[in-house]
# Entry
Amino acid sequence: MSGTKDEERKGSSSEWRDAFWNPRTHELLGRTASSWGLILLFYLVFYLFLAGMFVLTMYIMLLTLDDYKPTWQDRLSTPGMMIRPKGDQLEIAFSVSETESWDGFIQNLNTFLSPYNDSYQVQMNDNCAPDQFFIQEDSGEVRNNPKRSCQFNRTMLEECSGISDRFYGYSRGQPCVLIKLNRVIGMLPGKDGQSPYVTCGAKRYRVEKEKDEWVNYTQPLVAVKFLNASVNTDISVECKINSNSLEAGSERDKFAGRVSFKLRINTK
Amino acid sequence: MGDKADRSPKKKKGGTKDMDDLKKEVPITEHKMSIEEVCRKFNTDIVQGLTNAKAAEYLIRDGPNALTPPPTTPEWVKFCRQLFGGFSILLWTGAILCFLAYAIQAATEDEPAGDNLYLGIVLTAVVVITGCFSYFQEAKSSKIMESFKNMVPQQALVIREGEKVTINAEEVVGGDLIEVKGGDRIPADIRVVSAHGCKVDNSSLTGESEPQSRSPDCTHDNPLETRNVAFFSTNCVEGTARGIVICTGDRTVMGRIATLTSGLETGKTPIAKEIEHFIHIITGVAVFLGVTFFILAIILGYSWLEAVIFLIGIIVANVPEGLLATVTVCLTLTAKRMAKKNCLVKNLEAVETLGSTSTICSDKTGTLTQNRMTVAHMWFDNQIHEADTTEDQSGASFDKSSVTWLSLARVAGLCNRAQFKAGQDSLPILKRDVAGDASESALLKCIELSCGSVRAMRDRNKKVAEIPFNSTNKYQLSVHETEDPNDNRYLLVMKGAPERILDRCTTILVQGKEQPMDEELKEAFQNAYMELGGLGERVLGFCHVLLPEDQYPKGFAFDTEDVNFQTDNLCFVGLMSMIDPPRAAVPDAVGKCRSAGIKVIMVTGDHPITAKAIAKGVGIISEGNETVEDIAARLNIPVSQVNPRDAKACVVHGTDLKDLSQDQMDDILRNHTEIVFARTSPQQKLIIVEGCQRLGAIVAVTGDGVNDSPALKKADIGVAMGISGSDVSKQAADMILLDDNFASIVTGVEEGRLIFDNLKKSIAYTLTSNIPEITPFLFFIIVNIPLPLGTITILCIDLGTDMVPAISLAYETAESDIMKRQPRNPARDKLVNERLISIAYGQIGMIQALGGFFAYFVILAENGFLPSQLVGIRLNWDDRSNNDLEDSYGQQWTYEQRKIVEFTCHTAFFVSIVVVQWADVIICKTRRNSVFQQGMRNKILIFGLFEETALAAFLSYCPGMDVALRMYPLKPSWWFCAFPYSFLIFVYDEIRKLLLRRNPGGWVERETYY
# Structure
């Protein structure tokens, strides 16, 4: 109480200085070195302990996980769909005459399709019977891993394979767009022997069968080639997967079981 | 919650000079003038009064004779004060920052996230709703205040142009000739020109409990002491008087005090200071975190704008949105609880102030005492007998069989002009109203209580003659017929100043027998008189004589003007002494304050002897403690030779106080534990309060009179009396004791201390969840993981699940006897200190955050995103056009699909925080004791636990929540993710508190006891 007066007399600046470093008591921010040491040591030990506990619980959690199949897949009941080539926006706009306007798409498709080369597929994957699921069951306790998947050869895409036409029809104003279904482990996209197929917004389409998918898996694709799309106009295309076993996607998700994109072919 | 000083712009301008002027003593000089001079000054006539024209002219010049009501704050200002005061500022700042962040986002991004906008709106809504709540809460209290106001207009009898007219008291002007009689309220300050047995009760102005007689003569230089001035709004108890009005309205003594009071500015309440300190800490932490991560964000390569948004986001995340509401509700609950115990709190923040109080300056009259003269002692048969002075007649009784007592009772009953007012037969005797002066009333009640109806006694002994008391005789006598119809003698009874009565006596009644008054008996009388006088009591002597029938036969014409009968050679019967006794509960309450470390100082306008006696009676001066004067008397040495340091107690006279310098004053306040200030003026009371505050004390002032109101206003908390208190004092006070019981103050202290402790607990609980709310955002920025906890879920915690448990901590019972510890030191014991922050943020909060993150990682891993893949995924994760993002299993996710998982994570994080907050609320129940010692008897808290869990489940599982709040149903197993962490919190804190109790003052206590 008697100190209040003395403190008042002191300038507020020296008070602040003292609060930071008090030379009389050797206090930095109100604590002596040993006080700082103790509290920092405490927090170090405390946080090390917490980190240990966290690592332990995480380790236990990871032990409960399956290596090949996630615990829950209910959020993936309707697989998403995507197109290739893919820019920032889902928009394929180019001029036939300007090579550089579609050069990017070609590059994109080339990279994307390289794992589909026939040589690679034969080496890695099995040749499965068409229209049948390729299911590799575990036999009791013995897990059948890694699993093999079916071949999907690049040649199956014919004109859109980039083999016969290395510009995927872009140079002629008949662009190919590849449509793929997102991979979901253990998904059986059709039942009763009916294959799912893709329908696109009233344009020309091709249907390819979806296959079951495993390691070294290359996704089955559907190629859409626009043979005589009207030029110089925006064409909105929506492609949809039609399957008797997949739920229709929710309203909110624009990419679950369907995909929309814009196409514009300029002649100049 | 604003400050309580009502300031008008007008006051501010010429303020300082006015205030200094008001603090000086009263400048009235008319009491020293002759009546003619006064008449000349006001152009009035001593017989005719003012002319109507003059009166009208003066009325226009001086304005009506009424006190200007204290400038009332307009309702909208009060409302704004609630809206922008204290804690609200923090939330407002947060809201503005949110809007700013949203504006930046809206300007720079195509599709800005609405989070900041919503957060800003919610923050605004919280402040506005809480502001309205506390505004209405206080409006309710002030409604009760309104009801105190006496709406009956006062009337005054004035003489104008020679005619007596009754006019409204407001129309009285200076110079008016006024007549007052017993029972009237004096309408203005008047200079008495003639009086007949006039007595006024100045207790509301000076605190003197005894009525003062008024006469035309100037008896003292001090206008407050002189007998020829009667003051505005005091009461005329008996007699009649005529006087000239010298001051009206605000210029009266009463008006000056009222103006002084309303002009005083008071500081912030202790809790407001604590909240300010808390805001400093929180802001400090927020800015530190914000700037640190701003710099980090820049280093990590974020753009300036992004970094600014992060900065704002982090600062706002530190704002405890729910705390304002929690604190307000906690204070309101306590205010309600106190109102139930008869403490009405006018200002919500004042709820806590009594708890911090370290000094109570109490007025005596009406606060510590009953404000009712009561017979306390009697001396007869050469022995002092104690009378029962308690309110409920539970005290000691005395032997009533003595013949001397019967004689004494007869004298006291007959020689007494007081009588009960009609129509009160059903009331207990002590509660009945009496017409007559205070000491006669006291005698009347005493006799009525012990001997039955005084009226019947008076009927049996018809009064034949009477000489009323006057200051020259100093006695009162009456002559009565005897009870025995066959006895034709007359009985003369007399009472008065004991020494005068003794002079007239030659014999004395002992054990019912008349004995000659010898030296031995005279000495016994002197001793008794001294002793009773030393108790601060007013002593009256009683004597009687049966007049010899031969000299005064039946029908003798007693002439009271020219006394034609014997008034000496009487028989002394006894002494009776009266005091305004302390209230029954006061000594106990003072004792409790003492043990709670609170210094109780008596500040009274009454005389030192009476004040000291009452102080001793109620324990303000405790047994065995002596004043300097006592020591001097004991050692038989002059006062000047006594070392003042030896005396713990002291009694300071108001006239001495005037001459004291500030240092001397501080010295007295510092070095004496038991202080009584007597004969103090209202201004001096104010100075005493300021002195205590200068020494760092938090001062409570209790009082009921107008003279107390400046001190009440200046005090950190003014406590007025609800029944006996004057309107002015109630206006100035922050708290009102509805039952006038000083003991309620103890309740106030207890509740105040409890709410301070419990607010700490509430804040500790609420702040803890800040860490699990901020860390997700920090990790989102630093390691680029999908956001673990969103704004909506944070709001659900702060304004939803955390609310009831935080409030329920206000119902927590005290851990130890809070009335046994010292008052908190406002410089050291803060509401929120770095230790609380260390525990809440550094320790418990961190465990909580880990619990939340664990749930987050479990959900993502079980859905396919293993922790190793999450780091750095943020840009792809939040890219709307990326609809085939691969998880650790190679599955591909559309934007919406992974967002649903993300929001499920938010929900799980939220639920995890609820789970760890279970443990938090249980550990926050106590600060030192184990929960096993404290028990789980707080039903509200148990309800809170269930409520928050039910709310969390509802938010997660109610259909439609996915659209409304983007919260998704959780798999049952996800509820248990945080359980180990919840358990860890409980165990960790129990161990901490065990160490705390084992090693008092040890490292654990120094670093973690908040």
